[in-house]
Amino acid sequence: MQSYARALLIAGVAVGTAAPLAAQVDKPSSEPTARLPAPAKIVATQLPNGPIQVTWSAVDGAVKYSLTRSVPPTASQAVLLVNPADTQYIDTDVRPGSTYYYLVGAINEAGTMGLKIGSAPVKALDLSVPAPPVNVRAAVSGSAVVLTWGGPSTNRYRIEQGTIHTTGSPAFVPMGDRDCCQFSVPLQSLAPGSRILYQVAALSPTGSLSSRVVSNEISVPGAATTDTGNVATSDTADAADTSASAGATARVRPAVVAPTAKLKVGGTLKLSSSGSFSALQLRQVHWVSLNESSATVNAQGQVRGVAPGTSHVIAVGLTPDGAVASLVQRIEVTR
After folding, report:
1. Which residues contact 150 (CB under 8 A, 6 or more apart)?
2. Distance (Å, whole) CA 116 – CA 122
3. What is the mean pLDDT of residues 4-19?
């Protein structure tokens, strides 16, 4: 009995002197382990030559960054950054048609990965340069200069008009982008006696531009002309009919230049209802916009804003006394 009581006493002393359980837990390390915030933003953009550039905001306290890339259906993979402290990466392993996702996070001195942020997906485009147009040719047809060329009908084509001077190279001005493979300019919009040529470049759906091909030279007649027979096109049928109706000796009135009109992108303006146009009392009217990438015009004289820029819309027709007259309206398109 005495030995039993003695054992209880010893056990009680041991329990009383044992360290608390909490004291036996390892103390937390003094090293920084808190996760850094994610970068404020990350942007992925395909460059004009094909690669994708990824940039992100710097994070205070970061010593390096971790970047992962995903190209479905393959799994995400870590990207080997040449300089992990940089805040950008150029991805040169890009294939047209594939979609790329990027995820970045900051790492602190303790090696702890911070919160991550992902970029918007980037679908890689085919940025290859299209083949240039062929057989670029300009000719006078009726009361217009008609430009024709050959090339894939799926492409758009960029047109530029140049004026040849006695000295120096031709000064080219943009005429807008057109579908394949014809474009016309009323003679009334060109200075009589001037020497004109054009250059055409193919434009891919992604905006890549081919080399430019220059047309032959055209001399603008000093008065209304009859059809040379070089080109016959539906695009200039109205203008040709106007010249034929007026006759070879038709009187040509100076062009009427209307005040500049302003138009919003997507907005419309009916020039055929303007006072300047109504005063001419034109019939057999042919409408054309010299820069359809900014503004277009239909057969009824309704102009539509396409993109910020400037265009000249021209109406050519016959007056009640049989003279050839034209209206030139400058259009400024804004957002």
Report:
1. 133, 134, 135, 181
2. 18
3. 42
pTM greater than 0.90: no
Give strand ranges (E) for 81-170.
Answer: 88-91, 99-107, 113-118, 122-123, 134-141, 144-150, 156-163
Return the biggest CA–CA distance within the chain: 146
Same domain (yes/no): 164, 116: no
The DSSP code for 26 is P
Supply the range of the domain harboring residue 228: 128-233
The answer to whether residue 332 scores a pLDDT higher than 60 is: yes
Q: Do 206 and 301 sit in the same domain of this protein?
A: no
Query: How confident is the model over 298-318, as pLDDT tens digits?
Result: 988 999 999 998 888 888 888
Q: What is the pLDDT of residue 193?
A: 84
Q: Give me the sign of the Cα torsion angle 118, 120, 121, 122.
A: negative
Same domain, 64 and 144: no
What residues does 295 pair with on adjacent strands? 305
Determine the 3-state secondary structure of 24 from DSSP.
helix
CA distance 294 to 310: 6
d(CA 293, CA 274): 23
User: Would the pLDDT of 286 be above 50?
Assistant: yes
Strand bridging mode 324-334 / 256-264: parallel
- Per DSSP bridges, beta strands 64-70 and 218-219 are unpaired
- The pLDDT tens digits of the residues spanning 236-259 come to 334 444 443 433 345 777 778 888
